[in-house]
Q: What sequence folds into this?
């Protein structure tokens, strides 16, 4: 059930596509499957990702239908708003934290503080940009080396992600990061957490939230990730256990979210906060953030991205 009636709109998302009409939506693994799920209704508009290489654009071009592009992080926040039944004119403070998606400026976003409703999103703040190359989730050591370089820390062999690279890979990566060849700039908090997980020698998965304590927040200089990475490296070299580092990192993220929510709320008068994106799959982190946001109404969840795309496109 959609939160308000929409004209027939198709969101051609990755993995799940949605066809909305009126207050109802029908899903399928592809645009064609979504259309087959409701005979007799054909969309007037197709919502696609902002990325110019989005495969859904090819489908939309074949169909001859009008296309409306929606930024991934706007859609992430909007999907949570819809899952909680907020109406077409409502707004919230949105924290869109994930491993990255195409942003309106061509950079890879993923550490975003947005003032967002269905009709639009304003970037209030974001994690500082870092130049990265080849930072796939299965290669967190590359994200770590990029963040070490940003933080001004030499690639010494006492650090795990440095040893995870061959000499040749380090040379190539160093050259890429120096020249920018084959690189992107990113504000992704998910990639930062992957980098920290590589530094401490463990993933960022938390296990049961009730069994994970929080530590004191690491120092931050605004939203620049450099001071956090330097502090983590100091702890790693000092022999601090990985679990303690992870607890302090969660405390840092929770403190950052609370600070930005207070700033944004003070400027906008908004008191509803949305937590969106795969970073919040960490149940312990989400619990810590919720606790830090006392006084705000907190909305969270992982509804399909296509739901947010559909409603943002339909809202115009």
A:
């Amino acid at each position: 059930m959609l939160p308000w009636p929409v004209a027939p709109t198709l969101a051609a998302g990755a993995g799940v596509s949605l066809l909305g009409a009126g207050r109802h939506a029908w899903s399928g693994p592809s645009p064609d499957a979504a259309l087959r799920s409701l005979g007799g209704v054909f969309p007037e508009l197709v919502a696609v990702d902002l990325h110019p290489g989005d495969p859904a654009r090819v489908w939309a071009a074949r169909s001859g239908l009008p296309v409306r592009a929606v930024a991934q992080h706007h859609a992430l926040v909007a999907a949570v708003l819809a899952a909680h039944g907020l109406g077409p004119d409502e707004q919230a403070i949105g924290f869109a934290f994930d491993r990255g998606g195409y942003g309106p400026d061509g950079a890879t976003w993923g550490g975003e503080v947005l003032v967002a409703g269905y009709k639009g999103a304003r970037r209030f703040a974001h994690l500082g940009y870092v130049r990265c190359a080849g930072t796939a989730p299965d290669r967190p050591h590359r994200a770590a080396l990029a963040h070490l370089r940003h933080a001004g820390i030499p690639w010494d062999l006492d650090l795990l992600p440095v040893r995870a690279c061959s000499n040749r890979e380090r040379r190539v990566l160093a050259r890429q990061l120096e020249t920018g060849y084959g690189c992107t700039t990113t504000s992704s908090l998910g990639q930062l957490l992957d980098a920290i997980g590589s530094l401490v020698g463990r993933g960022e998965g938390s296990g049961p939230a009730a069994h994970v304590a929080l530590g004191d927040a690491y120092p931050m200089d605004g939203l620049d990730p450099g001071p956090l990475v330097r502090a983590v490296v100091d702890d790693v070299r000092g022999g601090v256990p990985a679990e303690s580092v992870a607890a302090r990192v969660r405390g840092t993220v929770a403190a950052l979210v609370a600070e930005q929510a207070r700033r944004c709320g003070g400027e906008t008068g908004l008191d509803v906060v949305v937590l969106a994106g795969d970073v919040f799959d960490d149940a312990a982190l989400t619990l810590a953030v919720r606790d830090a946001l006392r006084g705000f109404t907190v909305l969270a969840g992982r509804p399909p991205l296509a739901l947010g795309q559909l409603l943002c496109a339909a809202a115009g």
Residues 203-212 have pLDDT under 50 and may be disordered.
